[in-house]
Amino acid sequence: MGRLALIIAVAALLSGAAGSAAPVPVGTRAQAVEELQAAIEDERRALELLKKTPPRVQTARDRIYRSADRLNGIYDFLSATPGAAAAQQSIGGARSDDYAAANLAPGRKGIPRAIEFLERALRSKLEALPLVRTAKPAAGVSQCADGKDNDGDGITDWKLEPGCTSSRDVRESSPFSCAVESRIASGRLALSGSCSGAFSEVEFTVLDGVHLNGPYDVMHAPACGAPTTTGVRCTTKEGDKNPEHLIDARFSTTSKDPSQRVQLRFFDIRKRQIARFVVPLQ
Asked: What is the pLDDT of residues 59-72, one digit of tens each?
């Protein structure tokens, strides 16, 4: 799937800061450029805050999440823009690095690594800026809003089609990506974020010898199967019932390390696996 698909912070991949993974609406090329310039300034300010003595972690994370929300809107806009694949890839990579940095920043040992992620995200945004400036919106009806099964997978249009990143997407086969972050909240492992396309089932599996160790809660999931010692698979809400394709889950495990790894597998309405991610981003 590559770095574009691993937008984890799933990835992507949200404690203390307002990590809503909510896109800032972007409807024109001028707005995309404006939001990207603002995201670049957010990135620079976050770096300054983390490099202070002592580092201003909470304020830096707020800036990082603000930047990621801007990138979410730009990414959606570019999904409906022919010839914008390079710009979209840079934006997706920057968003992934933003979320990973926010996830690492709370621990003092994680701050140097978080700074590395932010510096790479800043480079990606600067590379994307001239590409976004030349992007032009698609004309006419997009494949993700035309009522047709354009990619022949038996699923039609945005909110159900896992290959649609928005209703303006010109392709039903866009790469499925997620931005999910892990943290410890009230003694439990918390996973939260959102995905670019729809999914009907999600499977959580803790890795590296960690086991489930008590109650769990998976929001936006009406039903879950019987849990094993290491995981659980749940049927999730679809379409209008979960339009942002959110991930929000809490697990009691045998580890209290916020960097414990969890594999997430996503399935479409035909129970076909459409993506697999591991959080946190390594």
From this structure: 999 999 999 999 98
Give the tokens for residue 248. 């929000």
* Adjacency order of strands within the sheet including 178-185: 178-185, 188-195, 246-253, 212-218
Start-to-end C-alpha separation, the chain: 15
pLDDT band at 159 (very low <50, low <70, confident <90, very high): confident
The angle, 0 to 180 degrees and rounded to 10, between the axes of the packed helices 57-79 and 111-133 is 30
Torsion of CA 241, 200, 261, 110, to 10 degrees: -40
Q: Where are the domains of the chain?
A: 2-133, 178-279
183-210, pLDDT tens digit by residue? 898 999 999 888 888 899 999 999 999 9
Instruction: List the beta strands (DSSP E) in 11-93.
Output: none
Closest CA to 19 of 75, 100, 129: 100
Domain spanning 2-133: CATH superfamily: IL-4 antagonist (De novo design) like domain (1.20.120.660)
Distance of CA 38 to the CA centre of its chain: 19
Residues 6+ apart with CB under 8 A from 270: 153, 154, 155
Could you say which of 2.70.70.10, 2.30.38.10, 2.60.40.690, 2.40.37.20 is the CATH number of the domain covering 178-279?
Answer: 2.60.40.690
> Would you call 67 exposed, middle or buried from its count of C-beta atoms within 10 A (0-12, 13-18, 19+)?
buried
